[in-house]
Amino acid sequence: MCSGADIEISFAIDADTVSLRPIGDYRVEDIEGPTVFVGGAMYRSPPLSEMDVDEVRDALQQLTNNSDFQSIIDNCPTNTPLVYDDIDYLTRHLPTSALEKCQTLSEETPFENELLLLVAYVERQNALIGHSDNVLEYYLEQRDEVKEQLQAGSDLNGQLERSFFSYLLLASALIEELTTETVLNELFREEVRLNSISEFVQSVGHAKRLEILSDIQILESGRYGELVEVKDRRNSLVHDAQQRAGLGDLGSRREIARILEKTDRCADILLTVSGKNIESIIAKRGCDEYINHAQGEAIADTRATWERENPEKLATLEDCERAAIEDFRWDVKESTAESFDITEGFEFSGFDDEGLYAILMAFMRDASTAFIDRIDADANESNLDRFDFAVLLLLCAGHEYTEIARWVKTDEKYIQRKENVIAWRASAFEKELVDEIPEPDNPVWPH
């Protein structure tokens, strides 16, 4: 029997690159009376002025238990294009019945129509955090628990079996949630993604949803087969108590480790094609124009943060004649968490100041985090879905279909289909981020 130290486990999903942050928020502050901030909007009204801040917060919290308000949330989109005003977009998107409920709630509560609608929109955005992202968080914790038990040399006993069984259930639940989101996003245009359509997609069943994604070539055949295998293993363990008690034919910790890695790769496929794990792909492979923009924004954000939190270190960096902070750029593929390959903005020839170098690398670590945050924010604000946004930036970089398909874990035929529509779906927001949006200009036949 192998020892725990002999088992090396490599995961496809990097917990540090998967975003688990809420997309939007709202808050109540006392600025000459209770004031509600939602995104960039600020709301005051006579009814609010008669309440204190805590009462307003409580009233907003009580809305979450209101079935009519939940109906408004369920019918909101998950994002609105940056080039449109949110209210203009939402009032056109929501069904008449949902808007009428909003008007009725406005009469029954101290909140105006627009405020109710924007709060519902924020709740809808963050509802995604409450589904697949919530499952993802538990999945990552359970995955690490099984890994620790395997590497600690735990026997194939009840504790390891229970942990592994819980892992398989969470992996299956995560894949099902992501499959549902992907089918909804790819098969139904934004204007019909209402609650009734979401319920329809849920009712189709996981096996059929996977089959649909395979038929339209979002999933290529090999990956489809792996995902079906995860589904079948989960069903077998759930419905066969005797097999569950002994985890079927798993005879060694090494076999469990192999299934752990394979299942994680399957979850990673759906995380990517659903657009939830695209930031690092864009950071490493995106077109130069966008990378320059996003890194520039990240440097500006980091500088502003250091002005508040590390003013002395920032001053040291600013006083260095070798450094032009606003021009800092770096090669993501050649950088590590400890050392960044700075390509612009710093003159390294003859440089040997270890203290300043440590400050520089600390600044770059924060800038690297801000860079990923900027990609995440741009993907959320884009008129395109997150997956389409990634495909756009990879196409603009001039990569081959086969390369892009491999990186975003789909079939190259689906990348070709995306190229057909991305050009006319792109808004002014995307066009300002890249030099030129590619359009299909020659026939593509099978190899």
Provide a quick synopsis of the model.
With about 450 residues, this protein is mainly alpha-helical. Helices cover about 65% and strands about 5% of the residues.
Notes on the structure:
With 447 residues, the protein is mainly alpha-helical. The chain contains 21 helices and 5 strands. Strands 1-2-3 form a 3-stranded antiparallel β-sheet, covered by helices on one side. A two-stranded antiparallel ribbon has the order 4-5. The two termini are 47 Å apart.
Key traits:
5 strands, mainly alpha, two-stranded antiparallel sheet, single chain, globular, three-stranded antiparallel beta sheet, 3 domains, 447 residues
What is the residue-averaged pLDDT?
A: 86
What topology, given as strand order, has the largest sheet?
1-2-3
Main sheet characteristics: 3 strands, antiparallel
Alpha carbon gap, first and last residue = 47 Å
Shape: globular
Number of domains: 3
Assembly state: single chain
How are the elements arranged and paired?
Elements: E1 26-30, E2 34-38, E3 41-43, H1 46-49, H2 53-63, H3 67-75, H4 86-93, H5 96-108, H6 113-127, H7 132-151, H8 158-187, H9 195-204, H10 206-215, H11 221-239, H12 241-246, H13 253-273, H14 279-285, H15 288-309, H16 311-319, E4 329-331, E5 341-344, H17 354-381, H18 386-396, H19 401-407, H20 412-425, H21 428-433
Antiparallel strand pairs: 1-2, 2-3, 4-5
